[in-house]
C-alpha cells in the first residue's frame, strides 16, 4: 500500500507513571507532520490518547508538569471499606475538570479505550459514550481503584488482556499502526527463564516490625504503606500490586504483539522512572520525545514517513 494512502493509528500501552512518556511521543510525531487519526489506548495510554484525540494534549502536559509528591498525596483518597485501596474520586474530579462531558464518538479523532470485564476476563472496547467513564474503567487497576460499572459489566484495567492494543487500532480503520511500548531498565529480557535460588528468609526483612505501629502517627504509617518508605526496605501495598501487574502486563504484551505485530514500534527507555514516579513527568515526557525522534530519523533514512490521512 502506498504510504500516501496510509491511515495512521497509535496503540498506546499501560505503565502507570511511565505512561506519561506517551505525551512526548505524540507531541514529537505531530510536530514532525505525522498526525495519527486513530488512537487505541490502555490504562495510562488511554488517558494520554484521549487527551490527544480530544485536542487537549497540551492541557495534560501542563497538568502532569505540576505534579509533585505532595500533590500526589492529595489524590490518595483512602478506601477502607470497599474493593480497592483508593476511591479515586479526587482523580476523577480532576479528569472531568479537563474533559467535561465529552463523548467518545464526538471526538475529532477516532478513539477506543480498552478495559477488562471482571469475572469473565472479556476484553471490552469502549468506543462510544462518556469519555471520562471509559478512562476510569481503562485505568481501574485491580486493588488500587474500584472497578467501574458500565453497561451492566464491572470493568477494570485493560492491560490485563491487551496491554498494547494494536488489534483495536486496526479494527477502527488504521492501515499503519505505530505501537508505543514502555521499557524500564529493571525489566530483565530473559525474565521468562527460571532462576534457581536457595530458600532462606532475610531476618532483617522478616522481623515482624510491620505489625508494630507504636509511636508512629497514622499519617506516617499510611505514607510508608503507600510509598514503601520503611526501615527494612519492604515495598508498600501499591508498589507490590503495580509491580505484579507490570510483570503480567509485560508477558501478555509480548504474546499479543508477537501474534499481531504493529507496522512499527517506538520503544521508550524509562530507566530510573518507577511506576509511581508521577513527579518525574518532565523526564518521562522528554524520554518519549527522544524515542520518537529516533524513530522519525530512522524512517527518513529508510522510507518516507507515512502522512496522516484525512480523518472521519
Offer a quick outline of the entry.
This protein is α/β, with parallel strands linked by helices and 312 residues long. 37% of the residues lie in helices and 14% in strands.
Structural class comes to alpha/beta
Distance between the termini: 20 Å
How many whole angstroms does the radius of gyration measure?
20 Å
Instruction: State which percent range the strand residues make up.
Output: 5-15%
Helix content: 25-40%
Q: Low-confidence runs (pLDDT<50, min 5 residues)?
A: 211-215, 308-312
Largest sheet: 8 strands, mixed
The DSSP helix count reads 10
Strands, count: 8
Mean pLDDT across all amino acids = 81
Give the CA-based shape: globular
The SSE string, one letter per element, is EHEHHHHEEHEEHEHHEH
Identify the notable features of this structure and list them briefly.
single chain, about 300 residues, alpha/beta, 8 strands, 10 helices
Can you give a write-up of this model?
- The structure is a single chain.
- By secondary structure, this protein is α/β, with parallel strands linked by helices.
- The protein is built from ten helices and eight strands.
- It has helices spanning 21-31, 44-53, 57-65, 69-74, 89-99, 131-138, 166-171, 218-227, 237-259, 281-302, and strands at 8-12, 38-42, 110-117, 123-126, 148-150, 153-157, 176-183, 264-269.
- Strands 1, 2, 3, 4, 5, 6, 7 and 8 form an eight-stranded mixed sheet that branches.
- A hairpin with a 2-residue loop joins strand 5 (148-150) and strand 6.
- Helix 1 packs parallel to helix 10 and helix 2 (44-53) packs across helix 3 (57-65).
- The longest helix has 23 residues, at 237-259.
- Residues 211-215 and 308-312 have low confidence and may be disordered.
